[in-house]
Write a structure and sequence with these properties.
Structural class: alpha+beta
Number of strands: 19
Number of domains: 3
Largest sheet: 6 strands, antiparallel
Number of helices: 11
Distance between the termini: 11 Å
Order of helices and strands: EHHEEEHHEHEEEEHEHEEEEHEEHEEEHH
Strand content: 25-35%
Shape: globular
Helix content: 25-40%
Strand order of the largest sheet: 15-16-14-17-18-19
Length: 396
Amino acid sequence: MDIFSSKSMKIAYFDTFSGISGDMTLGACVSAGVLVDDLRREMTKLDLAGYEIEARHLVRNGMTAVKIDVVISDQPHYHRHLQDILDLIEASGLTARVKKDAQKIFHEIGVAEAKVHNTTLDKVHFHEVGAIDSLVDIVGAAICLEKLGVGAVYSSPVRLGSGGTVKTQHGVMPIPTPATVEILKGYPMVLTEIPEELTTPTGAGFIKALSSGVLSLERLRIEAIGYGAGTKEIPQIPNLLRVMVGELEPGYDHDELVTVETNIDDMNPEIFPFVIERLLSSGAHDAFLIPVLMKKGRPGTLLSVLTDRKNLESVLSIVFRETTTLGVRITPTERRKVKRDVRTVETSFGPTRVKVIVFDGTERIAPEFEECKRIALERNLPLKDVYNTLERELHG
């Protein structure tokens, strides 16, 4: 029986040529196919009153877009702390995925606000973010992703304005605002000369929390395109967010990483295993050592780390704190890899996790080492026997 099939993955790609905000995200998703009535219906599962969601079509630079407005009633509103917001979402009747995505966005914004304003996470007051319109924007965006049926989110490098100012609850802030820059730290950004707040903290939080990174579109088979409008008319560029929804064809997965390298010749070698462990546990994709011959003929060690750009600061912190190096080399690295998945199948050992590798429509199935080790320990069997048995059953 063929228990595996080669499947493409449906994604949403957010083209932030004019930045991204919460209302632009909702508008783009509605333009791409999410029904406004479905969005309104799902939002009633959140214990939040005093607002209406309105949608209208408009044209900017010849492009038709959807503008979403959250109309707030005149009743008094209260600032909320992060935990209040997380609890409100958790107590809702929304799906587990929507809850998780919305909470991740709020957490990203909360961490940035705490750092910018030199306070603790539990004391952060969500002025703009805690307001009803931003709750609708963030929870609504999570709902839209589920309604679109996407399995992953990607984006272009996020465009930011510069040179202007914007009024906030904390006073007048430079553009881009400190919170926006803090949220996007480590994520690819493009600083423009447009003196407008192209990207808001809400938009930045959406990208940082949910995007898997910047993606080449060469394998995207586009099924739907949507445009969401921002509030302001910007002379330099149409104030729109474009989302493209489609299938990523099986084949190479493509992403942009960074390689961090440094040569070390003056450190106790017993420390290296601890450094590698710290780097891998911090989220680095790979970390390894290579013996090298350094200047003056001294033997040394090359430490090489492969990581996401958004995790770069964490990697640098570990390298500088845990080693004796005084400097590192940082190189953009393009990675291509075949599609890989881990699934559970029935074997003579019971339900067993196996690796499934897909390339050019052909699948290769292999035992998962950690699963083989678990079975060997639980059943007191030689590891090689477990591996060989699974090989025969998977390919017999």
